[in-house]
Structures are given as C-alpha cells and as structure tokens.
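ENTRY TYPE: paired fold submission
RECORD: A
CONTENT: sequence, then structure tokens
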Amino acid sequence: MQLIDGFGRVHDYIRVSLVDKCNLRCTYCMPQHVRFLPQDHLMNNDELFEIIRIFVEVFGIRKIRFTGGEPLLRKDASSLIERIANLGTQLSITTNGLLLHDFLHLFKQVGLRSLNVSLDTLKEDRFIEITKRSGLSKVMENIRLALSQGFRVKVNVVAIREMNDDEIVDFIRLTEKEELHVRFIEFMPFDGNEWNWDKVLSYREILTMIEKKFAIQKLNDAFNSTGKAYRVLNFRGTFSVISTITEAFCSSCNRIRLTAEGKLRSCLFSRKETDLLGEYRSGGDIRPLIISSIQRKDEKLGGLPEFENEAAVKKVLSERAMVKIGG
C-alpha cells in the first residue's frame, strides 16, 4: 500500500529522529528554552524498529534518513541502525560530524553510504560562536575521512544574512578538488530561533554571489529533490540551494517525519502530529493513524501563511524547535 495524500503525492521517504539531544547548541536549531524529554518518553530500540518495519513492509517506504538532534548520541544507535538495515531500504543520515569517525565502519557494513554533515562556517571562532562548542577541526577531519572511504558526503549550510553570508564562496571552493556536494539552506522559522525575513539569504542571492566568482552550470534535479543543483565548471563536486522560503518545492514532496517520541509529522512545518508511540504502547493498530495523518497533509508549508507575512508566520509556528523535530 502506498501513502498518498489528498493532493496525489506519494510518500516513500521517512526521516526518523533517533534522539532529541545534541552535543552542539546552534541557536537557530536549539533555543535556550528547550527541555529534553525523559528517556521513557522516547521510542526504545524495539518500538522504533517495529514502527519503522510497518512503514517499510506495509506502506512501501523505500528511503530512511536518521536524524536528531544528533543521532549518533543515541547509546544504541549502532544496533538500531544495524537492525533497520535488515529491512532492505536505502539508508542515509544527517549528523554534525563530530562522532562520525566511530561509525564509518558500521555504515559501510550495513550499506549506508550517504552522509549529510551540518556545518555552517569554516572559521573556528565563528564555529564556536554559532555552536557554543569547539570542534571544527574534527568535523573537517571526519568529512575528509568519509570522502576518502568512498562515502557520498553532503555539507548542509544554513545560510543566514550577517552570520555566514561572507563564506558562500569559501564553501563552493570545497567542491573544487573533492567529490563533495554543498547544500545551502534558506533560514527557516521554528519555535524560538529568532527568524525574520531580513535574515533570509535567498536562493537567487546565493546564486548571484556564486556567479560573480565562478562559471556554473545547472544540473538535472530529481523529481522529489529539495535542492536546485549546480556545478562550477571543471570542479569535481557540486552544490545546490534548498529554497524552502522563497521557492518552495511542496508540490513534489514525498517526505514524512517521525520524532524521537514517536509522533508522526506529515510536514516539517506542520502544527499537527499523530501519536504513533502512544497507540503502539497501548496495543492498538497504528496503520489507520498513519494513513489518516498523510491524507490530512496540507498542500503547502504545513498550512503556514506565505513567509513574506512575517508576523502571521510567527503567530502560528509549531511549538517545536528544530532539534525536537529532526532535520
């Protein structure tokens, strides 16, 4: 059975948050007021596996991305990833890269070959300012290590005006000699992250900055792609821009999200959640809940107003910080 919403979109890709904690403190993702959940509120290993098994075997989910928080902080992450790999789906992960060196062997063993590494600056002092921690050298070392071992590595850069807009070209230069894919992400609004329209560095602005320095070519985008992909001529790697704010891609969305406490979200921006874990723990059948959740999915942006209407957007934001949702 396929998960099809009221607008004919087929959902075959789930992003699963393994934990709601992180070892960095980026304020656009984790505002100061965030409180982490007690362990017994989160899905345990068996619960998470069984819920994911239903998505795969009943609803045909073909791709799973592990997210967090920082997913590699979960104590049983290795055994959980290994179990889920046996379901035979395509696996990927989004991580801040600090612990990546400890998991590359496992990833190779289970066939997880695609890594997204969140990194918003190439400057050590700015890394500390953004994340409230040190560690840039370790992240860069682990990116190089993963590339050397044949992993497909994407670097996710949240582009924010007057935070890191002066580093766009520096990130592009990373793609010159390495088969690395850099993704610039427009700054998105979440609970407590002080988003406003003036901080949004748009897709068109980012592209203009790059075109002033390099000759680029447009690449073909997959139907369900979130990014608009390009390559600098004669560079080995590629780059893209995820234009959620200025040129949304909702019409081809095939993604759903499962939070660390077992809540299903049909959209990153949705204010509606379906408690799968509660139903599962009570012995109920979660399949009808999954179907109804997808069928109720909004056509665009989780029902948010247009982003240009800043006051209206802030008024109806989900009461979740990004770290509590999973990227």
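RECORD: B
CONTENT: sequence, then structure tokens
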Amino acid sequence: MNPPGISVEDFLKSREEHPASIVIDVRDPEKYTEAHIPGAINIYKTEVEASIENAIPDKTTEIYCHCGGGESGPRAAELLNEMGYTNAKYIIGGWRGYEAKTSKLD
C-alpha cells in the first residue's frame, strides 16, 4: 500500500488548519538536532515500529513523516498505515523540500 504524499505547500497549509497534527522526522538524531521542522518529533527510521504506539497511541491522529528527501519518510508512512494508522502521510521532498520552500518565505 502506497501512503499518500503531500507537497510542502499543502503541508504548510494543513499545519495551519490542523495544529494538533504530528510531524515525525525519521532522520538520524544528529541531523534532527542540526535543524528540523518546528514541532517535529524525532523517531529514527529503525525505531518507528517499536516507538510509535507509545508516542502516538491514537491511530486517527494526522501524522506527517519525513526524512531528508529520500525513501525513509514514505516508508515510515507506509509502515504506519500497515500498523493501522489512518492518517499517515509523507512530505514530498522531505527536509530538503521543506527547507527550500520555507527559506524562500523569509
């Protein structure tokens, strides 16, 4: 099952409309510490399955996963969907896409 992707633009709009949504940054902790989407939580890609139910017990929560811009964000969203989460998406372009888009807004 392919999880839905969301553009950075649509993600930014959705976050304004749904501030209780959760962003999961699946990059390694060092990259997360360097810079991350405001409000994002860091769950490293290999820890998602083991950690997610404690971090987000409500499987209807709107969740946005992202990595640096490759495959780990979509894979995390796919895993969440397989685990029964009903609103897991990934941010197309990941951190690099977010950073490129938001740096133009400054």
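NOTES ON RECORD B: The longest helix spans residues 94-105. Residues 60 and 86 are 5 Å apart (CA to CA).
STATUS: closed
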